[in-house]
Write a structure and sequence with these properties.
Helices cover 18% and strands 31% of the residues. The strands form ten sheets. Strands 12-11-10-9-5-2-1-13 form an eight-stranded parallel beta sheet. β35 and β36 form a beta hairpin. The longest helix has 17 residues. The chain is globular and about 75 Å long.
């Protein structure tokens, strides 16, 4: 539940709870204490025979889930959707109506979850456990769960992290199932608040044994109703918070243990903008994590391209290696079904779903299913595209230096899923060069959106795409090779005597790939069993062209991956150029930080520019420049202009509002012999803060 603004620095993606939802979730009625305490559900109540059969005793989330979620409709200002204020759409009748359509039209395509987001809590019982808002859900949540289960669907629910402010009850509420625990025993003495909103919850102190008992009591309530899925929201580090009060890793571990202990299989997903610094915690304790802020625009439509669909192409990249069976990258709701409500063009709707599918992200619809148009229904029920999502092989970008991008995934059968995107604001041709992603020779191309065979393509495939348009292909090699070529070979570091390289792994048809050889000038210069190595013994200020060849245990070799050329630094290098010694302009400002030289340049983007002159090298060519930068956001992009020639540079952020600690990435930059000028800016968006360049 956050908003992604189009400008600002740390507040570019400010977060706010809708006023209507706040009234429902936060400003609930006074604590209701019934005369007789409501018992916790028993294990027998938790585990219905039907649900045991549905899960078959297997691990959850082996594939990304498909379904529908209420939040896009709750958050929109589209006329008539929320007639009495934000979130007023949410009620039992509307949810059951969506479930009916999901079962009738979409279940056959794999959609099964009906997820109720924020707004269902009306109050808290005498034990601090959530109570359903009876005005919105007069028959209760168990009735809703039973209803959707009878249709072969599953029910999802929602809670915010921490102890809700209203559940605290001045610390006097006992914890169900304990003899001497109260809500005052759950919190820190200073009643510090947590969650991405800081007006929702107290931080729970999990050093107290009462804390796990409380989480278990909440989990048992959900299980007793028959809930199959829980979204825990406002989780940090992430949600653009990162200090000690917003460390919710103990909450996540506690919820993971509690949900398992109920005996009822429940998918467990975290939100929002989870910090990649804690990815091991998220992977070990959840079935997925939102990589970004809300996709919704909180405006008169459900989404807009700029706020915030387009950001996902950059924001997902650092998380791609972490997705897999049991835990998936969550890109948020899929709002592509209704042209009049969605707020984006048909081309944008297709690109939106294409990215979600190639990333194996959960596909959960956010539209009003009573308002779908023919084009939207066609998108959402395209079984070939859904199969790409369900294959569970997230695609990677070949390059993001321009708005014309190619993303690829190698499939288990030797074919390739390839997406072409034109993220620019004008029509453009986009070309996929097969060698870049390890495909050798000719391939049969199939258009997955149009169910059309396109014939043979030899070495490349090009398409003219509209603004924000896309094409999704399956490329099948005509003559499959025994060992595929290494893909996306790139440099990662350099010294005057070495260059470090990395690449995406090759695959063997009959036997596993066991190693790689690196060549320079026709001579083998390194060998490795992994997908990275350092070539040593090089000369300073010298250009080298590298190729990488894979081989299996029988000695069968691949074709060479696409060659790359880099110049080593001078013998006296590398040289560090501090950003604060450059020329900030247009509002860009020097700030203190825990980074090189103790300074950085921030407020870049829009009119804010950083010009760094006199970047000196001895020889012309591509250098592996190390960029030191600071980004507490999900990711930000610069337009880097080198001697008058520009390219895009997205950089991964931390999602935790840390604008003090520097990170580094390696950027290949073509420099001329002598002095060079490098400018950081972005006329249409905010840029990361710059610490230094090392050449």
């Amino acid at each position: 539940m956050v908003v992604r603004p189009t400008s600002g620095r740390t507040g570019r993606r400010k977060f706010a709870v809708l006023a209507g939802i706040a009234a429902s979730v936060l400003t609930v009625s006074a604590i209701q204490i019934p005369a007789t305490a409501a018992p916790a559900p028993t294990l027998a109540q938790n585990t219905a025979t039907q649900d045991t059969a549905q899960n078959g005793g297997t691990q959850l989330a082996q594939k990304p889930y498909l379904g529908w979620s209420s939040w896009s409709l709750e958050s929109t200002n589209y006329p008539g959707v929320n007639p009495t204020g934000g979130g007023s759409w949410l009620n039992e009748a509307h949810v059951l109506q969506q479930a009916d359509i999901l079962a009738a039209k979409f279940k056959q395509h794999g959609y099964e979850y009906v997820n109720i987001d924020a707004g269902w809590v009306g109050s808290f019982d005498q034990y601090g456990r959530p109570v359903v808002d009876a005005k919105k859900f007069p028959d209760g949540m168990k009735y809703v769960a039973d209803y959707v289960h009878k249709k072969g669907l599953k029910l999802g629910s929602y809670l915010a992290v921490g102890l809700d402010l209203k559940a605290y009850n001045d610390g006097n509420s006992p914890i169900y199932g304990t003899t001497d625990c109260h809500t005052r025993d759950l919190v820190y003495p200073d009643l510090r608040q947590t969650s991405g909103w800081d007006n929702q919850s107290y931080q729970i102190d999990f050093a107290s044994p009462c804390a796990q008992a409380y989480i278990q009591s909440e989990a048992d309530v959900l299980a007793g109703w028959g809930v199959d899925f829980l979204k825990l929201d406002g989780v940090g580090p992430g949600s653009f918070k990162g200090d000690a009060a917003h460390d919710n890793t103990p909450d996540v571990k506690a919820w993971s243990a509690a949900l398992k202990k109920t005996g009822r299989p429940m998918q467990f997903v975290l939100s929002w903008s989870l910090s990649h610094n804690e990815i091991d915690t998220w992977k070990a304790n959840s079935n997925g994590w939102r990589i970004d802020t809300d996709v919704e625009c909180y405006c008169d439509t459900l989404v807009t391209w700029n706020n915030s669909v387009k950001g996902r192409w950059n924001d997902v990249v650092q998380y791609i290696p972490d997705a897999g069976p049991g835990h998936w990258n969550n890109l948020d709701s899929l709002d592509v079904g209704s042209g009049k409500m969605d707020g984006i063009t048909e081309a944008e709707r297709q690109s939106y779903m294409t990215l979600w599918a190639i990333e194996s992200a959960p596909l959960y619809l956010g539209d009003d299913l009573t308002q779908l148009d023919a084009y939207g229904t066609k998108l959402l029920t395209n079984d070939e595209v859904i199969a790409v999502d369900q294959a569970g092989v997230p695609a990677k970008p070949v390059s993001q230096k321009s708005d014309q991008q190619v993303w690829y995934a190698r499939n288990a059968d030797g074919s390739y899923t390839v997406a072409l995107f034109n993220l620019g604001s004008a029509p453009s041709q986009v070309t996929a060069n097969f060698g870049d992603f390890g495909l050798t020779g000719a391939a049969k191309a199939r258009d997955l959106w149009n169910h059309q065979e396109l014939g043979l393509s030899n070495g490349s495939f090009s398409a003219n795409l509209p603004a924000h348009g896309s094409k999704l292909l399956r490329l099948t090699p005509v003559n499959p090779v025994q060992v595929s070529a290494p893909a996306v070979v790139h440099g990662t570091a350099s010294t005057p005597s070495s260059v470090s390289l990395a690449w995406d792994a090759s695959a063997g048809k009959l036997a596993p790939v066991t190693g790689y050889d690196v060549f320079a000038g026709g001579h083998k210069v390194a060998s490795t069993s992994g997908t990275s190595t350092t070539v040593n013994g090089l000369k300073p200020s010298t250009s080298y062209t590298f190729t990488v060849v894979a081989h299996d245990r029988f000695g069968r070799s691949s074709a060479a991956g696409t060659e790359v050329s880099y110049v080593t630094p001078a013998a006296s290098g590398p040289v560090v150029y501090e950003a604060e010694n450059g020329s900030p302009g247009g509002g860009a400002t020097v700030y203190d930080c825990s980074c090189s030289g103790g300074k950085k340049v921030g407020y870049l983007g829009g009119s804010g520019l950083l010009t760094m002159n006199n970047i000196k090298v001895a020889a012309e060519g591509t250098y592996l420049v190390k960029l030191g930068y600071v980004d507490g956001d999900t990711s930000r992009s610069a337009v880097v202009t080198v001697n008058g020639s520009s390219f895009r540079l997205p950089a991964p952020g931390t999602n935790d509002n840390d604008w003090n600690t520097a990170r580094t990435i390696t950027v290949p930059i073509y420099l001329m012999a002598g002095n060079n000028q490098v400018i950081f800016g972005n006329p249409s968006d905010s840029v990361f803060d710059v610490d230094q360049l090392t050449v």
